[in-house]
Design goal:
It is built from 16 helices and 16 strands. Helix 3 runs parallel beside helix 14 and helix 7 packs across helix 9. Nicotinamide-adenine-dinucleotide binds next to helix 7 and helix 9. Catalyzes the reversible oxidation of 3-phospho-D-glycerate to 3-phosphonooxypyruvate, the first step of the phosphorylated L-serine biosynthesis pathway. Also catalyzes the reversible oxidation of 2-hydroxyglutarate to 2-oxoglutarate. It comes from Dothidotthia symphoricarpi CBS 119687.
């Protein structure tokens, strides 16, 4: 196996001209460790079953050629908000210069720092606004080490050719396990008994306390979390029904029902796992609660807007609901502290006074395993984007991927051309690449922005600068990157 070829002669000059594109290596590095496209979490998890383990390599990856975007030591990565160690380690092992800070930064300090970096990793507190992104001249990619991406101006990022990645499903298992715990805690009124004993009251009761075996769980939204929950609940002896807007194959013996009303009428426990959309706003209100069985339980770990809380308070007071667990709220504090009061949500005092109500501060996905899985997934996506240009999983760019180059392909160049989505671009790009064999090419668009990736062979090193500059001069150009292998 030969190491990647470096581009010799006059390269520093060339590299300076294309530094904004992070394109070319300024020095050979035998340690260069670009992961092939197969470097990603395998469907079955990691080799020893632990989220922090090294991903398993496949035969294909051994044959895949390592592309070389630049001297990896030149890549500056800024990680804010205490990004998980597993993620940090993946980036450091690439040879990138990684600076990791425990907190977010005030906007002015962020602007100072972001001018210099190529990759930024954030969690939910750092706001990458239009103003901040306009200063981020070298930035090529943002990793949100969390579920949401509301903290990033996604459109501005795309228009500047900056891809954004997140990790939407790494914590599904954590949420599903929490729901199982809540079902048992509600059925046995555990939180009330515990609170009573904390206050010195011995209250041994069995009335209104139940086993969960043989009870029916109704899952609303049978996606990543709902389907995990389905398997766990069945293994504990529950019968599972589910309602989803899509027709889906049930796992185990779980059965899909035709309507939400069907589910509400049959379930002893109703657990919500739908996204926040205009259709799911107050999906469960007075009318839906009335349909539920008397003495049933409601669990919401989805989004705060999905349940009409004043209606839930009424249903709990009337005895219609025997209990509820709520992890998400219409308004949630930005940080930890004494903020859960009527100023935050006008009904808080009424809610906290109810019996058999579990209230948790949006911790459904908050486990060490989920944080580690998020770190691995986002860092891996960042590395693949930086080293190979792959946008699979990006939230603001079209998803484009090409199979890896193989070791027997030499003098190859991968062109990444992020451009305005206007007519005629493909023709212009291909007329620039005309004198080379285009081995493979893919282009896709999302809104105003399009992403083109092409592998061309038999490229002499001396030709790269011209190709790069010709592409940069096109009026449609947002950003050009060139990877060489
Ligand atoms: N509490 C937490 O910490 C936490 C953590 C992770 C996710 N979540 C939330 O959990 C929810 C589910 O997450 P997921 O990863 O399973 O999502 P998902 O996208 O995998 O699944 C959602 C499912 O809901 C279905 N759906 C959409 N609209 C519906 C409707 N009106 N009625 C019935 N079904 C509908 C979809 O078809 C899909 O199957 C999301 O709201 C997410 O934000 C909360």
């Amino acid at each position: 196996m030969s190491p990647p070829q470096d581009i010799a002669g006059g390269i520093s000059n060339l590299a300076r001209q294309v530094s904004n594109s992070l394109s070319l290596s300024t020095s050979p590095t035998l340690q260069f460790n670009s992961p092939p496209s197969s470097f990603r979490q395998p469907p079955g998890g990691f080799r020893d079953g632990h989220a922090g383990s090294v991903p398993v390599s496949s035969n294909a990856s051994q044959l895949a050629k390592q592309l070389k975007p630049f001297d990896t030591k030149d890549i500056k990565v800024l990680l804010l908000e205490n990004v998980n160690e597993a993620g940090l380690s993946i980036l450091s092992k690439q040879g990138y210069q990684v600076e990791a800070l425990k907190s977010s930064l005030p906007e002015d300090q962020l602007i100072e720092k972001i001018r210099d970096v190529h990759v930024i990793g954030i969690r939910s507190k750092t706001k990458l606004t239009d103003r901040v992104l306009k200063e981020a001249k070298n930035l090529i990619v943002i990793g949100c080490f969390c579920i949401g991406t509301n903290q990033v101006d996604l459109q501005t990022a795309a228009q500047q050719g900056i891809a954004v990645f997140n990790s939407p499903f790494s914590n599904s298992r954590s949420v599903a396990e929490l729901v199982i715990a809540e079902i048992i805690v509600l059925a046995r009124e555990l939180s009330d008994r515990s609170m009573e004993l904390h206050n010195g009251t011995w209250n041994k009761v069995s009335k209104g306390c139940w086993e969960i075996r043989g009870k029916t769980l109704g899952i609303v939204g049978y996606g990543h979390i709902g389907s995990q929950l389905s398997v766990l609940a069945e293994s504990m002896g529950m019968g599972v029904i589910y309602y989803d807007v899509l027709t889906m194959m049930g796992l185990g013996t779980a059965r899909q029902v035709a309507s939400l009303d069907d589910l509400l009428e049959q379930a002893d426990f109703v657990s919500l796992h739908v996204p926040e959309t205009s259709e799911t706003k107050k999906l469960i209100g007075t009318k839906e609660l009335a349909k539920m069985k008397k003495g049933s339980y409601l669990i919401n770990n989805a989004r705060g807007t999905v349940v009409d809380i004043p209606a839930l308070i009424e249903a709990s007071r009337s005895g219609k609901l025997a209990g509820a667990a709520i992890d998400v709220f219409p308004h949630e504090p930005a940080g930890n502290g004494d903020y859960f009061n009527n100023e935050l949500n006008s009904w808080t005092k009424d809610l906290v006074s109810l019996k058999n109500i579990i209230l948790t501060p949006h911790i459904g996905g908050s486990t060490e395993e989920a944080q580690s899985a998020i770190g691995i997934e986002v860092s891996t996506a960042l590395v693949r984007y930086v080293n190979e240009g792959t946008t699979l999983g990006a939230v603001n760019m079209p998803e484009v991927n090409l199979r890896s180059l193989t070791l027997d392909e030499s003098n190859c160049m991968r062109v990444i051309y992020i451009h305005k989505n206007v007519p005629g671009v493909l023709r212009q790009v291909n007329s620039i690449l005309l004198h080379h064999n285009i081995d493979k090419q893919m282009s896709d668009s999302r809104g105003d922005v399009a992403y083109l990736m092409a592998d061309i062979s038999d490229v002499k090193e001396a030709e790269i600068r011209d190709l790069f500059q010709s592409l940069e001069e096109l009026s449609s150009c947002i950003r050009t990157r060139v990877l060489y292998g």
